């Protein structure tokens, strides 16, 4: 994903990580440090404060690439985090994914578990749907 994306027969292609960093900047994503704070992690005042989830080797690299911890791109910092036990991402990516799934579900008035609408399933219908969904 760092050399062969959209290669189209050429020797090298594009770098997906670089594209993601640029997309984050174009869309005005907050910094990695801002997302840490939002997700309940300690806000870093110095690069070594990232040591709770980022390796020392990568902290040194970040300190050479960025002037201040507040400058670290979310995609970069989040990608460097050690994975949370039982997950395939670190705490800041996991936090944002959980938040997004919650908002998608809670904001969908037609989601089968969201009641209190004239078109909602009854409690019994919800239980039956839940049963069949978990059986599959």
TrEMBL record:
The keyword Oxidoreductase applies. One of its GO terms (molecular function) is heme binding. One of its GO terms (biological process) is response to oxidative stress. Keywords: Oxidoreductase, Peroxidase. Gene3D superfamilies: Haem peroxidase domain superfamily, animal type (1.10.640.10). The keyword Oxidoreductase applies. InterPro entries: Haem_peroxidase_animal (IPR019791), Haem_peroxidase_sf (IPR010255), Haem_peroxidase_sf_animal (IPR037120). PANTHER family: OXIDASE/PEROXIDASE (PTHR11475), PEROXIDASE (PTHR11475:SF86). This is Uncharacterized protein. It comes from Timema genevievae (Walking stick).
């Amino acid at each position: 994903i760092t050399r062969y994306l959209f290669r189209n027969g050429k020797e090298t292609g594009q770098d997906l990580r670089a594209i993601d960093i640029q997309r984050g900047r174009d869309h005005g994503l907050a910094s990695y440090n801002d997302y840490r704070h939002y997700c309940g992690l300690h806000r870093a005042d110095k690069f070594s404060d990232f040591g709770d989830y980022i390796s020392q080797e990568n902290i040194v690299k970040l300190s050479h690439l960025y002037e201040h911890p507040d400058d670290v791109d979310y995609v970069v910092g989040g990608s460097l985090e050690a994975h949370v036990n039982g997950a395939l991402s670190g705490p800041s990516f996991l936090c944002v994914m959980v938040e997004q799934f919650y908002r998608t579900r809670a904001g969908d008035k037609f989601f089968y578990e969201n009641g209190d609408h004239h078109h909602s399933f009854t409690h019994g219908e919800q239980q039956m749907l839940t049963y069949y969904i978990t059986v599959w």
